[in-house]
Amino acid sequence: MDRPRFKPIPKHLEIIGKKIVDAAYAVHTNLGPGLLEKVYEVCFCHELTKRGLAYQRQVDIPIVYDHLQFKEGLRLDVVVDDQVICELKALETVNPVWEAQIISHLKLTDKRLGFLINFNVPKIRNGIRRFVN
Fold first, then answer.
1. What tens digit of pLDDT does each residue of 3-31 get?
2. pLDDT over 70 at 116, yes or no
3. Rounded Cα–Cα distance for residues 124 and 25 (Å)
4. DSSP labels for 3-50?
5. What is the total count of domains within the chain?
6. Contact partners, residue 108, CB within 8 Å, separation at least 6
7. DSSP, res 45
8. What angle do CA 108, 8, 96 make, to 5 degrees?
9. How far is CA 24 from the centre of its chain?
10. Is the separation of the CB atoms in 87 and 101 below 8 Å?
11. Core-most of 57, 58, 66, 114, by most CB within 10 Å?
12. Range of the domain at 91
């Protein structure tokens, strides 16, 4: 049985991804766990800027279904360089539905790379999940 071939992530996206992870590490190292999600979002975006990355916060994405378009369908926490989705959390337990959501977000926006970053963990490496579409 033939399996679908995996299409590798382009090198420029890998570089952006490494900078995103580095930014998350910097924020977590300086602030630690236990703060509000909004605090992490502002500081994370500041770290992205320091790494030469552009970003948009709280991006509304319209949904199209059966020729019906509605604007209030989807809001992304952070979109980096208009190419990578970052969903940020600051909660003790990760809900499996968030993983499904980021996969859906990647498909709906036709983006290849996304991260689910939970800052409320003792070690940030346990709070970063990478997703590829």
1. 556 788 899 999 999 999 999 999 999 99
2. yes
3. 6
4. PPPPPPPPHHHHHHHHHHHHHHHHHHHHH-SSS-HHHHHHHHHHHHHH
5. 1
6. 61, 63, 74
7. H
8. 50
9. 11
10. yes
11. 114
12. 11-132
Say yes or no to pLDDT of 41 above 60. Answer: yes
- Please give the radius of gyration of the chain, using alpha carbons only, rounded to the nearest integer: 15
Cα–Cα dist 35/32, whole Å: 8
Tell me, yes or no, whether 1 lies in a domain.
no
The per-residue pLDDT for 70 is: 80
Residue 1 has pLDDT above 60, yes or no: no
Beta-carbon neighbour count of residue 80 at 10 Å? 25
Whether 6 is in a domain gets the answer no
Is 4 within the bounds of a domain? no
Output phi, psi for 6, to 5 deg: -80, 130
pLDDT digits 0-9 by tens, 58-99 = 998 888 788 888 877 788 999 999 999 999 999 887 788 989
Judge whether 15 lies within some domain: yes
**Which amino acid, residue 99?**
E
